Each structure stands twice: as C-alpha cells, then as structure tokens.
Structure of Ankyrin repeat-containing domain protein:
Amino acid sequence: MFRLLLSWGADFNALPAVYNGRTAVQGAAESGNLMIFLMLGCAGAQIDEPAGSKQGMTALQAACLNGNSLIAAIQAAAAHGDIRLVRDLITLGAEVNAPASEGGRTALLAAIEHESLPLLELLVQHGAGVNAPGAYGFLSPLSEAASQGWLKGVHFLLEHGANVNDTPFDLAMLDESGEYAPEELLSPLGWAITNASVEMIDLLLQHDADVLGTVIFDRSDSRSALTHAIHEGSNFEVIDLLLSKVPDL
C-alpha cells in the first residue's frame, strides 16, 4: 500500500491536520515503523516538518515517545530499536531541540517521562538543551525527572549542566510566549521533598540546591524548602538534612 501510494504521487510532505495531525514521516516515527520511515527519508520527506499546532509532534518527538512506550513491553529489544530510530532521525537532520506544541512535549522530556537513560544520553550528546522548557504546563527536564523520582536521570542532568534551582519564572523567561502559569509548580528540590526521597534531596543539595529559596509556586502561596518539608509532614531525616545546609544555623 505504501509503495502504491508513492507510485500514485502521494504528497508525503502534506501538512498535518490542526488537531493530533501527523505528516507521513511523523506517523512512521510514532508507530516505530523504521522501514517506512527510512523509505520516506530517502524519498525526500521533510524530517523536520513542524508539528501540528494542537497536540502534534515532530518526527523526533514521536519517535522518543513511541520507542519508550515499547520499552515497558519488550524491555531491552525495544530500547535498542528506539535508539536506532532516534539516531536515524538525527542523522537525517532532525532538530533535537524542536519546541513542543501546546499539550505536547520535547524529545528530551519524552525520554525523561519514560526514564530511558540511553536515549537521554543520545539526545544530550547531540545538543539537546538540558535547561530547555517543554510545552505549556510541562516542567523543565530536571524538575520532570525529580517529579518522577528518577534518581539516575536527575544525576545525569545535573552532571550535564542542568540548573538545580530552576523555577517557573526561569522557564517563562526562556519561553518566548511567557505563558508558563499552571496551577502549581515545584522546583527540583520541591519535588524531591514531596516524594520524600532522601537520596535525591541529598544529591540536589550536593549540587547547591538553595534550601532557603522558594521551591513551590502557585497562585496563592510560595514556600521555602524547609517550610514545604514541614507542610508535607516530612520525616526527621529529611528535616535534618535540610537544616544541615542552612548557613550559619
């Protein structure tokens, strides 16, 4: 069917529909069909065609999200296939930092969402910005990893220059629209406290997370790390760890 459509002159660069739209190459990437994706690429399909404006995905974003969902099903084999597909996309010129559409996610956030360290490494190796914001309502890469309790991901991002004290205001400054205003956002340390992850709190503090800075932001409240820990009913170990980093205490 695919070859027949091409022989009939099908436009494989046709623009996607506004809602949930995909070009042919984006659909191939999302379904994980490497053969059709490569055939499209060799035939001249636009690998970096913009995503549909509402919940669309570029080909690279689709590949990251699809491949990692396969990881949960067939583990290492799917992980290998996913990385190969993303690597092929990059080789063909895909932009690893392509911004996400409203309701979507960047390739890096998709990798973090599914806790794929090999894919995270591949994307950063090819220039993915570790401090780049996702779409409206999404966290920074470091806050996303911290919110999931993914210690390895947090460690990797910190070692590659992620801002340990990033805030929603930082994201608003990085995003041209300045529209980052969800109901509530936490800093990486705020998420670690919420998740009661002593190991992650310790890691963030080792990288100079600010215990006196604001870690939670919403429309009616803001809290420091210590205030947030008390509000969350954190155990003594968490409180003691935070107090140990308060200067001149």
Notes: The two ends are 71 Å apart (CA to CA). The longest strand covers residues 214-218. The chain has a mean pLDDT of 70.
